Automatic annotation (TrEMBL):
Belongs to the Gfa family. GO terms for molecular function: carbon-sulfur lyase activity; metal ion binding. This is CENP-V/GFA domain-containing protein. It holds the Pfam family GFA. It comes from Podospora anserina (strain S / ATCC MYA-4624 / DSM 980 / FGSC 10383) (Pleurage anserina). InterPro entries: CENP-V/GFA (IPR006913), Mss4-like_sf (IPR011057). Residues 138-163 are annotated as: Disordered. Residues 1-124 form the CENP-V/GFA domain. It comes from the Eukaryota. Keywords: Lyase, Metal-binding, Zinc.
């Protein structure tokens, strides 16, 4: 899938034509991060954003050797570090990554052609908007591997092994 920030400074392709899973998260942290009612995370196998994919917008005289991306890091509730990559020019969040996981979260709004019908709504107990009828939804995150589709715990396994 093609992805880009709002201003077009950062463009990249995902490693698969569709995500392994798609979550619409209604937790307080996602509400604050997006300044909206929810966050959208498309889960893909871990991949790198090569420097040559970080390009200045066509109208900008800025050299492509200058990085347009920034990183914000924070501790997660389980003690891991979450790295949040964003465009320094327009502020768009693009990718969330944690070194101990074999997957990354590409933020849904930066992806072209995302199929929203497969989205799983999580942390609905703090939802600010109504959850559509008939969609898969959960009051919190995945606790039971049989609770829903591809359990986040399964996706979070480190490369080459289990937690």
């Amino acid at each position: 899938m093609n992805a880009s920030c709002q201003c077009g400074s950062i463009r990249f392709k995902t490693p698969l034509p569709k995500p392994l899973a798609l979550y619409i998260c209604h937790c307080i942290a996602c509400q604050r991060q997006t300044s909206s009612a929810f966050g959208v995370s498309a889960i893909f196998p871990r991949f790198s954003l090569p420097a040559n994919l970080i390009q200045p917008p066509p109208s900008s005289p800025t050299s492509s050797s200058v990085s347009s991306s920034g990183i914000y890091s924070r501790a997660t509730t389980n003690g891991q570090t979450l790295y949040c990559y964003f465009c320094k020019r327009c502020g768009t969040r693009l990718v969330h990554d944690s070194p101990n996981k074999n997957v990354v979260s590409v933020k849904g709004g930066c992806l072209e052609g995302l199929d929203w019908k497969s989205a799983i709504h999580i942390w609905t107990k703090s939802a600010m908007v109504p959850i559509p009828e008939g969609v898969e939804s959960h009051k919190e995150d995945c606790k039971d591997p049989e609770e829903y589709g591809v359990c986040q715990e399964e996706l979070d396994q480190p490369p080459g092994g289990s937690l």
